[in-house]
Amino acid sequence: MDSIPDPKLLLILKEKLAQKVSETPFDEELADQVLVSNDPAIFALALSRPDCPVKLITELALSPGEGIRALIVAHANTPLSVLRGMVNDKNPEIAVAAKRRLSPGVLIVEPEKFNRH
Description:
It is a single chain. The C terminus is likely disordered. The chain is elongated. With about 120 residues, it is mainly alpha-helical. It has 7 helices and no strands. Helix content is about 60%, strand content about 0%.
């Protein structure tokens, strides 16, 4: 018989993850923890960081949450390929925002092209 997780424990774990997302430099493990959390508040917290990894942004672009997709379309690290896909978003405001980001004269830097060390 599966036991039901203690809600207080789940809240503590969520708070610890939120603190980690707020204070810790991103690495692959933290990005995976954000994805596994399946928590829109944790997603939004990660997307509020300017150093949010492209991999995480790309994964979250498939989110059913319009608020998350709106943060993605506005994030500076969002790849062109993701923005192109968002042009057809079911939310017209997100679609328009993606089109604006892709408009000529709008500077979009592909961060993955500059990570060659």
